[in-house]
Amino acid sequence: MLRSTTRRFAGFGGRGLRPASTLAFVETSKEGAILPASLNTLYAAGNLGNQIDAVLVGSKAKEAAAALQKLDVSSLNKILVVPEESLDDLLPERVTPVVYDLLQKGDYSHFVVPASSVGKGFLPRVGALLDLQPICDVTKILDPNTFVRPMYAGNILATVESQQSQKLISIRSSAFPAVGAGSNSAAIETVNASNTVNGTEIPPIKWEGANLVKSERPELGSATRIVSGGRGLKNKETFEALVTPLADTLGAAIGATRAAVDSGFCDNSLQIGQTGKIVAPELYIALGVSGAIQHLAGIKDAKTIVAINKDPEAPIFQVADYGLVGDLNELVPELTEKLKQ
Q1: What's the rounded Cα separation, in Å, for the pair 338 and 334?
Q2: Mean pLDDT, rounded, for 96-108
């Protein structure tokens, strides 16, 4: 990292200091499963040192609340359940009024969300309604008022001190461990969904559907092993012939650079980097990845990076723990075969 900066966000609207308490948004699937990023977010919320209320939304929210009671979150005080089917798709236009209403009535000092597409969708809206500046992609909590977040594709870590009466924070899940199994004494409370903001009803919105890539592989954002392909693989056929067998052998998720995605080698849901997913696996194997700064921003928290590239001057070798220079078409099949043995 080049340097550290400190910025201060002053409070708005003349609101006074609030009692220290945290509201955490727990993201779930339509089936009611707590998504992995929310487990990291709950751990981060615990670092604030406040008692935590968690909010779950959707028709399966009560099932998710029961699962939440089986997690080791000692500071969890209350689980707020909003069991509305209209919230199943987590559309920001519908989630925003619910969260805004809770923050207004609950008088919370902190609100934390995962820095996922869902969190990034509604947190700015909540901030605009409350006239507050969100602090996004937090990677470290120094104290309840001071946070660290990356800037400029991760080249700078900014230390941000917020003096706002309410702190709106999104958590980069790869920077925090996940809470584990256990138990807590949190009570479950049902809350009615709000469909208005300051007396104004939200405009009608309809969910049309989604085309999702289904796979039995580990989810990319939480995978412990990832095999990733870049532009050096030349085409889709080579990508599938080299990346897929190696990933199958390791039980790994598959990732890609933006260049590989833009060239049509794979689906854009596999993109890793500044404009894709941020990952923190135990093992990251980069095949034909040059190491553009935007891609490195997405893998900087990987524990071990292995790079295979024919270009000995490729920037990826500057961050790799192990590097192998040579022809991918020869080295990768040989590596895959040896790992099978």
Answers
A1: 6
A2: 91
> Which backbone phi and psi does 220 adopt, to 5 degrees?
-60, -45
Candidates 133, 194, 223, 200; CA nearest to 169 is 133
b vs e for 274-298, b when ≥16 Cβ sit within 10 Å of the residue's Cβ? bebbbbbbebbbbbbbbbbebbbbb
CB neighbour list of residue 264: distance below 8 Å, 6 or more residues apart: 236
Mean pLDDT, residues 18-39 taken together: 90
Class of the CATH-defined domain 4-201? alpha beta
* Dist CA 75 CA 222 (whole Å): 24
Which segments are annotated as binding site?
Answer: 231, 257-258, 271-275, 288-295, 309
The C-alpha angle with vertex 298 and arms to 295 and 303, in degrees rounded to 5, equals: 115
First-to-last CA distance in the chain? 40
Q: How far, in Å, are 131, 271, 291, 310, 311 from residue 328 at the CA level?
A: 52, 20, 16, 7, 11
List binding-site positions for FAD.
Answer: 231, 257-258, 271-275, 288-295, 309
Confidence bin at 197 (pLDDT 50/70/90): confident
Superfamily of domain 220-340: TPP-binding domain (3.40.50.1220)
Tokens encoding 69: 């009671």
State pLDDT tens for residues 105-124.
888 999 999 999 999 999 99
pTM of structure? 0.81
**Domain limits, CATH 3.40.50.620, in the chain:** 4-201
Query: Which residues face 157 on adjacent strands?
Result: 4, 150
